[in-house]
């Protein structure tokens, strides 16, 4: 009760809060109170202690005059948060309109993240990030809560074709660039690999030697070969060193990212160019050939290449033989090898030459069939006088070559094409590819020669002409052409005759002109040379009749018959001529 008497209720009721203190006492109290609070500055990161947790907020004491509230959602990454834990916070406002301290853990984390990222760039630190998703040209990696861009070229030292395999996985990276304007961070995983590879590369190059067998990964493929990563060192595996067999592109037998065993074939002094081989790890297929393989053996294989001069037959990968075009057919007329075989054909052949030391062989396919010149029925089939049909294969100045069957050719001389026409070149009579009927004139099996004739299919009309155009007989002729020496005349039955210039004079003294049809007298007839000489002048000048013609005829055994007058021709001769003329006119048509 004494205590109640001592308390002055008037002083308490009449004075405001803080009143009644002397200035010194008040200053002492303020200093004491201020010593229990922290000096805080807005927009900075500080540490605070969790003093309370409810469903919505986390109450944080930062040593300020009031506690701050932070939404519980900002602590989702700390499911085990409890009272007494220390956390970093960002001071947004010391006091808002409600007098509350405004804090943010999210912003504190962001500020801290950028600080750590800048430190990582400055000190070349390694950061562990989480690959969140794939984006155009690379990956998005979460580092300290900041989304950073990892370009595709910076993922690995080898080209990466599938970015999706990294999504959701952790990856160590280094910060290579910060753009504060766009809040953009670029990171790299490749630089970490390259540092490890530098040591590995130095070790490989120091120990590199020819014949060394290494393991590598196929990094890139081209039409000429494959680039292989040997562990920071690239080497070229040329297409010709991949397989003993023939391949058109490495992708036929290899795949990107494959691990392969290879052997070092060669390298330059700086070891910048390294040549690798794969086929050299296996024995050469020539060494595995059967000892029974010899000249004359029949072999089976596949056509792997066709050239202008022949085709290559693959008996086994790396073992090929050349089939020259001349060994594809018994025909003497070389054709394109593509007419006989094509790439991919499975065929048989005969070994013609074999050199296992040089690893070369020549093959033939025509040898699978009998040589037509050695057949038993050759002599009888193409006996002299037999008739055949063939194809014109080649033309020359002196005649043409006719193929009667594959491998059997014969020559038709230009003089054996026609009895009546004077043919200077075979092209006037036939062209290559035409069919022609012939008769065998001569056969020489040993020397593979066959002489053929076309005109011999008909009787020689000059035997009949000898009695139709005897010396002294007159005939109606047309002047075909003229020159300094004389004129060419068209005679009956399609024959040609010749008259010298002095024998072209008419009765009125003028000269016979081209196109005129006049009577001409035969002054010379030669069956062997197929020549008839005539004169128009002799038809009206008795003295122009040559006296020498009978003398020339007397030298021949058949002179009396050749001098017989035309009117004494037999009926049989006239019938033969009529038939001949009909044939010749039919041929012209």
UniProtKB/TrEMBL annotation:
Keyword Ribosomal protein: yes
SUPFAM superfamilies linked to this entry: Nucleic acid-binding proteins
Cellular component per GO, a single term: ribosome
A Pfam family assignment: S1
Keyword Repeat included in the entry's annotation: yes
PROSITE patterns (alphabetical): S1 (PS50126)
Listed CDD domains: S1_RPS1_repeat_ec1_hs1, S1_RPS1_repeat_ec2_hs2, S1_RPS1_repeat_ec3
Domain S1 motif as annotated: residue spans: 43-106, 124-190, 211-279, 296-366, 385-455, 472-537
Record region (Disordered): 542-589
Record field: compositional bias (Basic and acidic residues): 578-589
Regions of compositional bias (Low complexity) in chain numbering: 560-569
SMART domains associated with the record: S1
Superkingdom in the source lineage: Bacteria
Keywords annotated in UniProt: Repeat, Ribonucleoprotein, Ribosomal protein, RNA-binding
InterPro entries on file: NA-bd_OB-fold (IPR012340), Ribos_protein_bS1-like (IPR050437), Ribosomal_bS1 (IPR000110), Ribosomal_protein_S1-like (IPR035104), S1_domain (IPR003029)
Job of this protein: Binds mRNA; thus facilitating recognition of the initiation point. It is needed to translate mRNA with a short Shine-Dalgarno (SD) purine-rich sequence.
Entry-linked PANTHER family: 30S RIBOSOMAL PROTEIN S1 (PTHR10724), SMALL RIBOSOMAL SUBUNIT PROTEIN BS1C (PTHR10724:SF7)
Protein family membership: Belongs to the bacterial ribosomal protein bS1 family.
Name of this chain's protein: 30S ribosomal protein S1
Record lineage: Bacteria, Pseudomonadati, Bacteroidota, Cytophagia, Cytophagales
